[in-house]
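User: My advisor, Dr. K., asked me to get a structural model of this assembly before our group meeting. I'm new to this, so sorry if the format is off. These are the inputs:
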Amino acid sequence: MTIETLSTNRSFGGTQGVYSHASVETGTTMTFSVFVPDHAPGAKLPVVWYLSGLTCTHANVTEKGEFRRACAELGLIFVAPDTSPRGEGVPDDADGAYDFGLGAGFYVDATEAPFAQHYRMRSYVERELPGLIASNFAVDMSAQGIMGHSMGGHGALTISLRNPGRFRSTSAFAPIVAPAQVPWGQKALGGYLGQHRNAWSEYDACALIDGGARLPDLLVDQGEADNFLAEQLKTHLLEETCAKAEQKATIRMQPGYDHSYYFISTFMADHLAWHAERLK
Amino acid sequence: MTIETLSTNRSFGGTQGVYSHASVETGTTMTFSVFVPDHAPGAKLPVVWYLSGLTCTHANVTEKGEFRRACAELGLIFVAPDTSPRGEGVPDDADGAYDFGLGAGFYVDATEAPFAQHYRMRSYVERELPGLIASNFAVDMSAQGIMGHSMGGHGALTISLRNPGRFRSTSAFAPIVAPAQVPWGQKALGGYLGQHRNAWSEYDACALIDGGARLPDLLVDQGEADNFLAEQLKTHLLEETCAKAEQKATIRMQPGYDHSYYFISTFMADHLAWHAERLK
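Assistant: The format is fine. Below is the predicted structure of the whole assembly, which you can bring to the meeting.
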């Protein structure tokens, strides 16, 4: 489990690095970024995982997320994986669409050909990358939080719901809350998992909560001017599901905000403070 | 003087806009960005001009500069112009190099063919754009600050030094302090202005200070791990010039920091607070 350092830059009194490694799960070279605030020798810091949305790599949040000041102040390590396998031999959407295939792994382990071989983002993010991070960075693996945006919000919610006790804090920006009920999710889950809809429910936050999965609590920010709100995100489904299930949740609608990093960066420090409260 | 709105995004309790207009000075369509914090109807806010470095457009600082939180808290409007004319008929470097021509206007009014027609970034930034901003945004033009990075640090210093009293605050990240003495500057000033070196001095911060120009004070941050420090930036020349001229200046060398936006974003809030102190 060796990693290659692609770049490091000093920033906000810490080190922003970008790294790559040969992934066993995806069978490809995977790239990720890690921000590590300066800390005492031997100290281990809480870690927050950030899962990105459709079309993104590690780079979008690393460049535009505005997380470093808060992470440095709060003493949090911030890890941002890629959103899919990439490279020669990795199949893409048949029409090259942005919402399936490259940049759109949806944090599932695909079972359908030709995707099953490389599209193993669930196992990559749940198991392989945490092992790699634990052995290469000063992380306290007993203090993990997870967050994400859009498709990555879906990833954060479902990974946390499926692994009770592992994440002390879970939050999302504009998450896809019920992929089985919206076009993005139906295309992705159908393509990666096939049309047996019972296989979809472990990748659907609302279905998981309906099925009894619970989190200690949950923070979601959603822009009211988000073009994807009505058709793809349907935040109200999460609100209704949480209310029915008595799942504690803070779901905030933010007037005027859209789906972009201009929205995410605005509320990033809020989310990180919320994670830090639960990780310390 | 009409402007076209290319995009607006709500961010940090304000509006990040990108605009374009037909520039009289450059004879091209010019694009710029403006962040306006929410404010009381009829209020006018101080404005900080940010001039970008080689290869940049308005977009680099707009996406990576991490200025919006501080601008919103401090009530500052933030304007980021492009770094050169662009478009059909605008001549570029003969070899397509990054340090001359497109993306490298050096904030001069060119006098040499074929650049003199379009490369009028001095007049554009000093006169045309301020007029446009004053008539389209809620700016208090009696409270202006100016800052920039690298080539844009050179622009900020020289524009402020040539216009005494106009900017209440001036700062720079990793500025080119003496273009007449370094390869980037010699190529640009020679190419735009010709080899009559006496024409260069009004575009050289150290030469302007040597010649008697003064600012109330000055803030500069420079990364010690900046690859361009020794050959192109030569911060020590500014330190020596300011000491000799008794020009008040705070010039901070920052260990470990490089030339990137990871460096700029780290110290952006510091600079904006410094500007705000002088603009309120």
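One thing worth pointing out at the meeting: Chain A has a mean pLDDT of 97.

User: Perfect, thanks a lot.
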